[in-house]
Amino acid sequence: MAVCLREIVLRGRKQRKESEVAAIEEDTTQELSVGELLERANRDRTSREKAIIVRGLESFSSFSCIRFRPYRSGDREWLNIESRNGCYSYVGRTGGGQTVSLSRQGCLYHNTVQHELLHALGFNHEQTRNDRDNHIRVHWNNIIDDMKYNFNKIATLNQGTSYDYNSVMQYHRYAFSKNNYPTMEPIPNSNVSFGKATEMSKNDIDRLNRLYKCCENQWPP
């Protein structure tokens, strides 16, 4: 795998909290160095918990120009990685200290860390793509009412890539089911496996590198 090492500067992208299902808003008045997108983990985490988080953070530098570094006094924008109620992040930059919740109960997995960091970097769930109806069928009657917003179609940063069942941003077949029946099924082949990614897929990495203009030809043909 090619490794892209150069730091970049990009124009800021902001988006409302993921739960509000908002479209991308461009903010052309700010610029952010990727090297200044920061992480400050809780001091009370165990060594094992910190290792999982650090592994997820450092994984981005192995296949993109994204670099996370520890918080420094005077930094204007950073990520606070905390153990709150659940796994969640705002989508895109919000300015100042920005919370990424990785609860000790159910969130400390490599794929989950990558998933939430991708939200912070501007990416939404795979099943919210505008073209998702060509690839999955949503069973609305099986979804918990308060969670249906997670399946609404919105503007997403696809970066010219195809729908990806193996994306770390793709929910699994029974996500937010209220009756133990599937909330999604792939089409036309309902037997296709999806939503089981243990780490970022090739498409996830390509989208990241294209959005942040990291490298040309990141993957060999």
Q: Could you characterize the architecture of this molecule?
A:
This protein has 221 residues and is of the alpha/beta class. Among the domains are: 33-122, 3-Layer(aba) Sandwich (Collagenase (Catalytic Domain)); 131-186, no CATH class. Helices cover 17% and strands 19% of the residues. The chain is built from 3 helices and 9 strands, in the order βββαββββαββα. The strands form 3 sheets. It has a 5-stranded mixed sheet, covered by helices on one side. Strands 1-2 form a two-stranded antiparallel ribbon. The radius of gyration is 17 Å and the shape is globular. The relative contact order is 0.17.
What's a quick, concise take on this entry?
This protein has helices at 47-63, 110-120, 202-211; strands spanning 9-14, 25-33, 38-41, 69-70, 77-82, 87-89, 96-102, 136-138, 184-186.
List the helices and strands and how they pair.
Layout: E1 9-14, E2 25-33, E3 38-41, H1 47-63, E4 69-70, E5 77-82, E6 87-89, E7 96-102, H2 110-120, E8 136-138, E9 184-186, H3 202-211
Parallel strand pairs: 3-4, 3-5, 5-7
Antiparallel strand pairs: 1-2, 6-7, 8-9
Helix pairs in contact: 1-2
Keywords: Hydrolase, Metal-binding, Metalloprotease, Protease, Zinc
Active site: 116
GO molecular function: metalloendopeptidase activity; zinc ion binding
